[in-house]
Every structure is written in C-alpha cells, then in structure tokens.
Design a protein that fits this description.
alpha/beta; Rossmann fold; 5-stranded parallel β-sheet
Length: 128
Amino acid sequence: MIASSKPAEPPPRRVLYITKDLPSLMQGRDEVMVISFDGLTAACLATFRPDAVLFSLFSADEDATGILSRLHDLGYVGDCLVMCPNLPKPRQIEAELRGIAPGIRVQLLMSDAPPLQTPPQSAGLSRL
C-alpha cells in the first residue's frame, strides 16, 4: 500500500446564502446555494444540507433575528455566519443572537469595507 504524500483535503463546505440578490460570483457553484428568506424551508435544508448559513445582520428582506428564529424552528443546528459592519461590542451581539437560536453556532463576520454593488467576478469563497 502506498501512502499519499499530500494530506487529504476536507470536503468543501456547503454554504446556504440568504439574500434577495443573486451575486454573480456565486452562480454555478455547487457548494453554494443562494435563496431569499421566503425560500428558507425545511425542504430546502433537507435537500441542500448546508454546513453553514450566511446572511446579513440587517437587510431589506429580513434581519438576523428573523432568520435565526426560522432556522431554529426548522431544526437547523449548524454554523451561522452573520455579515455586518464593524460593531463596538461584537461578542455581546453574538451572545444575543445565540439566545434567539439555542444550539446554533453564530459568528459575526465584520468588515469596515462598504458593501459591494457589483461583486468582482474573480472573487473566491475558498475560506468558507
């Protein structure tokens, strides 16, 4: 038996992105599913089986509290990555969000960059 010299790569994470707009950089990626808040159903979670759910703290459609409440009601217990601007007390906000949905791991993804109007075509998701 010959041992491989390169370590086995973990399988790609499956990310469910909840937004009302379909970012062009996400199109055609099997490991990413983009849905609106209305598309967040038990059937969607059962079919796609995401490792992580990505959404904004605040958006025109829904805010993080509504999304987390629905995920909790649907029985989701994975990771949630919540995009937001830099905030003064991020750990307190994470704790409040976790209180809405016990059993769901919540992490804020903060940035001081303005939201992109048109995402670059070459942007990657390798860190997800």
